[in-house]
Batch of 4 targets.
Target 1
Amino acid sequence: MSPPSIVVLISGSGSNLQALMDNQSSDYKIIHVISNKKAAYGLERAAKASIPTSVHNIVPYKKKHPEDAAAARADFDRELAEKIKELNPDLVVCAGWMHILSSECLRPLREADIPLINLHPALPGAFDGAHAIDRAYDAFQKGEISRTGCMIHWVIEEVDRGEPLLIKEIEMKEEESLEDLENRIHSVEHVAIVEGTKLALRKKA
């Protein structure tokens, strides 16, 4: 019996994609990688591993709707959902995917029983959205928090507010630079994304 299939969405270097690639086993197989940035290094990582890739960039949709950003985004999301449905994976993993998915994408995938999970570098309810690590670091410097972390959560329309599947806490350290904190969080992410993917597939099964 073939392992469950996953599609991975990326926007950048793909270090979390690499963690998923390195840990493929009977638990899952990556069947496709989609990037919204054609220069994303993660595409090269996938190609080296003979994993099919494609680019789904918003620029053509903005050209199609030059005066209507909402319409461009809706078309982008709708066609992304169609592309994913054609691939028909058991799960979609957002691994550094820097585009907020609207109901135009999420609704048809829900109807097709294709769930999505996301990796977010913060604890539930803390620092939703972009620049979460920077914001946590600033809050620690002000004495507002003593720990941060990362989580894997189900993707819903509300940004980073889906039910958490897996939470990893990280104690903040005095005298630590932002770069050092980022490196510590990224190393934890690489473990969390693999564990979270396996957990999501078990829950779906």
Target 2
Amino acid sequence: MTGTFLYVLFPLLIVFSHTSPAAGDDPAFLQSVKLNPMKPRTEKLSHFRFYWHDKVSGPNSTVVNIIQPPTNNKTSPTGFGMVNMIDDTLTEKPEAGSKLLGRAQGFYGVASQEEVGLLMAMNFVFCTGKYNGSTLTILGRNPVFEKVREMPVIGGSGLFRFARGYVQASTHSFDFKTGDAVVEYNVHVLHY
């Protein structure tokens, strides 16, 4: 037993002791950041309401289908497995010609075999006013036929660094022929 330790474990201990930093040494990629105690930052809660235009049809489509679902009886009722990439407009009012506030860029896929339940991963990229260039990131489940759907805000950039919160989505209009949809988004986000 002692011989096994000397021949197998002892060389491993020597190798690992030379590859890890000594106690108290920070690796070169790690740096502690100290907050300035003289400049406290207050977190605020903001509420935004805008309209998400998912345009599937026509020459100015904002949706590209990247994966079609397999064609079998198990997946065909819900479209399970379908994935679409989006670059949807976000507007101030439900009309397509109203003021452009930003874009929703990302993808959604049908992730449920039981209902039309989407997995949505998208960034709201704002292009106007104080929040121009800032983003909010949404990642969550969207059961599209429920009246109000809630998804988490998992982060952001620009003025939304360290953001967290939730969105509530409710369908304003949906065209069953074309697949085009307008969805009202109410966004509640904590940020600095």
Target 3
Amino acid sequence: MSAYLLLLFFLFLLPMASAQTYHWGPCPTPMTQPNFNIQQYLGRWYEIEKLPTSFARGKCIEANYSFRQDGTVRVLNQQFYKDKIRRAEGTAVIHDPRNPAQLGVSFSYFTPYSTYWVLSTDYTTLAVVYSCTDILHIFHVEFAWILSRTRFLPPQSVLYAKQLLVNEGINLSRMTATDQTGCKDT
């Protein structure tokens, strides 16, 4: 019976496998931005490159962060996909004030917070973000984003961000550029 359930589990994951990045073993624990200031991080960020995700397959992908009255952070993601602007609203929280760059993000009341770790940012041009979900210490699903305050980032900045991720042990072989051409600001 347990072999049957394990087979069903992997068959369920198979269609999503091409849209996610899986690796054996537990999640790595990269260093995060020291002295992270959430107030400076708020605002609009454009996705420049990412590891594949099942939830962001379009173009013109951006995220906008703002404070809510309850002290949490509103996350409004937007993309142009299948001829429509699609939005997803979530909530980010700082679980431990001693590590404010290690946020948790959720897009549903029914799901736990996923990691959203800001590895590096200068707040005005570039941010490097990493997320990882550990599955029973057998394998992990990871995400990484290179973000910019503008739709395009100089190549040397992208190389800097990628090197930072590689130095933290994050495999970027599946990282892809996000199409930011022909986008309209809303």
Target 4
Amino acid sequence: MVSLSEFQKIGVGLVGFGLFFIFFGVLLYFDSVLLAFGNLLFLSGLAIIIGLRRTFSFFFQKEKLKGTSFFLGGILIVLLRRPLLGMLLETYGFITLFRNFFPVVFGFLGVWGNIPLLSKLLQKLGDTSSLV
């Protein structure tokens, strides 16, 4: 298990609350205040968890500048109260920034199929081809 300092635990909480506010803002028909608050919490939590230097070096690598510009531009558009356009830009930027991490995440999720109760549930879900 990874040990986190107290400061990093606060960062994890900020990221969690940021994702909650973003999710809740989307559920409430793209409420711009909730989305903006969630974005600020998410970015500040990320900076606290991995540090400011690593955060800047991650976002401003030469090959990731396109994704960074879309992601941060989307946050700016949300702050300017255009939530739908801003979230579309953020989503594209997020996918562009983190595309290298997706195989790791999907590989981790594939391990869940080996858990006894979950494997039975996934098999049942896979067997139902239609609701009719």
